[in-house]
Amino acid sequence: MAKKYAMVHDNNLCIGCQACNVACRSENKIPESVYRLQVWVKQEEYPNGSLGYEYHRQSCVHCENTPCVSVCPTKASHVNEDGIVLVDNDLCVGCLYCVAACPYQARYVHPVTKAPDKCTFCHESRLSRGEEPACVTVCPTEALVFGDLNDPKSKINKVLSERVTYRQKERLGTQPKMYIVPNHKGGINS
Amino acid sequence: MIESYARRRFLQFSTAALSMQGSLRAWEPSILKGEDKWVRSVCEMCSSRCAIEVRVVDQKPVWLQGNAFDARMHSSICARGLSGVSQLYDQDRLRTPLMRVGQRGENRWREASWDEALAFVASSMQRLKQNYGAQSMLFSSKTGESFDLLSSFAANYGSPNTFSHWSSCPIAIESALEQTFGERAYRDFEHADYIVNFGHNLFEGLDIPLSKAMARFAANPSKKLIVLDPRFSIMAGKADEWYPIKAGQDLAFVLSLLHVWLRDAKYDHAFVRRYCIGLDALKASLKETTPQWQERYTGIDAKTIERLADEIYRAAPRCILDWGHKATTSPAEFQRTRAILIANVLMGNVEKKGGIYFAKTPEMLNVLLQEPLFPLLQSPYPAPEVGIARIDGAGEEGSAYRFVPKKHGVLNAIADAILTQQPYAIKGWFLTRHNPLVTVADPQKMRTAMASLDLIVVNDIYMSDTAMMADVVLPESTYLERDESIHLHHGLVPSYTMRNRALMPLRGTQSLRETVRSLADALGFGDAYPWKTMQELRAYQAKGDSALLESLVKRGYVQATIPPLFLREEASVRAFCERYAHVDLMRVSEMFERRRKTPSGKIELFCAHIEEAFAGYGVPCAVDMDVQHNYPYTLISGKSAIHTNAHTQNVPYLHALMSDNPLWMHPSTAKAHGLRQNDTCYIENEIGKEKVKVFLTEGIRPDTLFLYMGFGRQTPLLPKIDRKGSSASKLLPLKTAPVCGAMITNTGVRIVRA
């Protein structure tokens, strides 16, 4: 049976340390000027006057309803059998419609291949070796859970059944496969 | 006979990791692909020394992750750890020995061969020894294997003047633990229900096992985390309650907490009566330290103290007041840390699950189990006693630093000793993995002092501010290129780690061990070392225990599988005795009854010998808490999750993430000085003046300013980091904290418009 890979990012466990960011760069040999994955640490002031940090994972969210694939004139942008959104460089003509269409600003132009590039859940490297994506493997606080939504026994399904999660820009109907456990703590200033 | 002994013993070691994912890989190094292999080793991108695995493809390390043989690691690793590969291949690394040709610090060099450089070092050291005595040479290193090695080298050469980084980092904690308990104590974050954190920022100063435990704790809604920090750190962001305490005033908070408990007779009476001395002195000292009293120091209101005192005490003994790691914030650092330790003691959390505990050492377990199950190591680095007093008087009766361990010394005392040539001539300095011009107070003065020396030798993998002042710079191999000795780690359960190299040294670098070994030969004391090669060294250290060595070569990490033992936790003692049926329950419980290694043999709430030498320091009391010295602001500094305090700033991956350290400033402070985001201004005091860029944030007290450490470098040979950002060290005075000799990392400053 085909897989349906997805990920959970738990904002309560995330500490914004960028281990995931460097892991992605190291494993996928991402040039210094661009990135597939960053965690943006944002200091927020909540309505009650208290402070908090939010940890935004900036990378491809692997939509089920994919604007980047819909606009691609050559089918270079595609979803593979495991639900992972990929780019076939050989088919890409460099129109960059996909870069513009992505509501998550997840795509960049690779300075060497000149084709759009993005998070692949480490499909071409780690998944093919039976390993988890680089970011999930190294996360110091185990804030990331990766797995197959089609496997009822998977850890990710367990987490999704137990925790309240949301997805970014759900209103767009893109159905991202990146689930976020919201932060339940802020700094309560005395 | 020997074989069966070894096999039986190794049943004691963990096989837990084998059942985990990736277990096959652990036993079949090359199962993945033809050229793939995994090497298990120990990280050295910071001081936490996490267990790592290195993926090596075609003899090249390509990927690093946590070593799951240390079950606390899983496969986790931090950004720094991952960047080990980036550091390894960094084109800016030192490739060949450099010898100074211009004036000292002028930045004119020539390349030299190893033979020439080492011959120069040996003959210079020989000359200094003849002319001024061996004590005229100083030796310094970050603690770890390089420090043990260098200390041994110094001792055999004949100098007592070894310095670790301790006095610029954890010495107050080490000292307070020693004076209170007579040994180190550890924190069981995993089982605690309530933790009070005084800025121990485990989410930016990462130590994977501890950080992971703390993250789990903080994310658990049924646990409570209180953070006191003048800055809204990542740790503070995970707290249930954050109190932006005034910088350096932790002591006032703890004194009032203790006051409330003693006032209300809330403490573990039986424990204190049986195991402690000095309760009356403590009570007398804390009469006035009421919650109202502390308000003006900490800025925290009295009602909050009353509530917290009650909450914390109710959570005891599964409650920890965390003394932190690098915390030195005020001259009262020894008092602050002692007060925190004593709060733990009064809660009766000692040797309780979720509280604090002492190491279960191999020696202790072997006695308890009546069998030599856990290997004892012998030191491969002999360091004979040198019968000469140190330049700082550390460990000498009558000296201000009598309570500072001789081995570690006081870094802040070096500059004055060199400039005055007191107590005797000081002419040379050998540094490895140490960059005091970045990490020690008043680098301006230190630079002047260094300029007057005859010989400075720096062993490092990169050029550094300190190396700029050297006569000879020796290019060291990184940890990925080094085999090292075995390290025993103490804790709830003993564990052993060993650094295994993932590749042969690149570009003609070599390890400090090779450097020291050949210098020792050249200086005529090579036979002090019972080994020449790494294999011989390891075999000597392990006393020929090939099973241990083999296991460490394969796994990098070996841990005993005894059940965790908390001596005052009945269920824990019972579980231990069930596992080892021949061990008597009483015998285990009695382990806690032994005489402690303090002068009184008990846990010392009051230290008579400290009081005698430092009046007012024998028992926690309100002394020396001011760090602002009539300046309008207090400058504080701390770690980021990206960089270490002095070492990683040039590593390409990490530099790309963080190449600057703007000054955290509250918007109201900025407004008062007419400053805006990204403006440039100066901060200054009587020690120095430093240019800073303004970063506006609500996450800091208006009277406090913050800088991440490690920037503001003066290293022209590393143009990427040269003069980028600002250094807090340049504003720190050389005054040290009484008793422990710690550098004080908070200081008063004023803001000056550019």
Summarize the helices and strands and which ones pair or pack:
The complex is a heterodimer of chains A (190) and B (754).
Chain A: E1 5-10, H1 19-28, E2 38-45, E3 51-58, H2 67-70, E4 77-79, E5 85-87, H3 97-101, E6 108-109, E7 116-117, H4 134-138, E8 144-148, H5 155-162, E9 178-181
Parallel strand pairs in A: 1-9
Antiparallel strand pairs in A: 1-8, 2-3, 4-5, 6-7
Chain B: H1 2-10, H2 23-27, E1 36-42, E2 51-57, E3 60-66, H3 79-82, H4 84-88, E4 98-100, E5 109-111, H5 114-132, E6 137-141, H6 145-157, E7 162-163, H7 171-181, E8 185-187, E9 194-197, H8 208-219, E10 224-228, H9 234-237, E11 241-243, H10 250-263, H11 269-275, E12 276-277, H12 279-285, H13 291-298, H14 302-315, E13 319-322, H15 333-346, E14 356-358, H16 362-369, H17 414-420, E15 428-432, H18 436-439, H19 443-451, E16 455-460, E17 472-475, E18 486-489, E19 495-498, H20 512-522, H21 534-541, H22 546-555, E20 557-559, H23 570-579, H24 585-590, E21 603-604, H25 608-613, E22 633-638, H26 652-657, E23 663-665, H27 667-672, E24 680-684, E25 689-696, E26 704-708, E27 747-753
Parallel strand pairs in B: 6-7, 6-15, 9-10, 9-13, 10-11, 12-21, 15-16, 16-17, 22-26, 23-25
Antiparallel strand pairs in B: 1-2, 2-3, 4-5, 4-17, 8-14, 18-19, 19-20, 22-27, 24-25, 24-27
Q: Please, how many helices of chain A?
A: 5
Which class of secondary structure composition applies to the elements of chain A? Answer: alpha+beta
Order of adjacent strands in the largest pleated sheet of chain B: 5-4-17-16-15-6-7
Radius of gyration of chain B, Cα only, in angstroms?
A: 26 Å
Q: Which CATH architecture of the domain at 171-359 and 595-613 in chain B is right?
A: 3-Layer(aba) Sandwich
Percent helix of chain B, as a range, is 25-40%
Distance between the termini of chain A: 54 Å
Please describe the biggest sheet of chain A, giving its number of strands, its sense, and whether it closes into a barrel: 3 strands, mixed
Report strand order across the widest sheet of chain A.
8-1-9
Look at the structure and give the mean pLDDT of chain B: 93
CATH C-level label of the domain at 171-359 and 595-613 in chain B: Alpha Beta
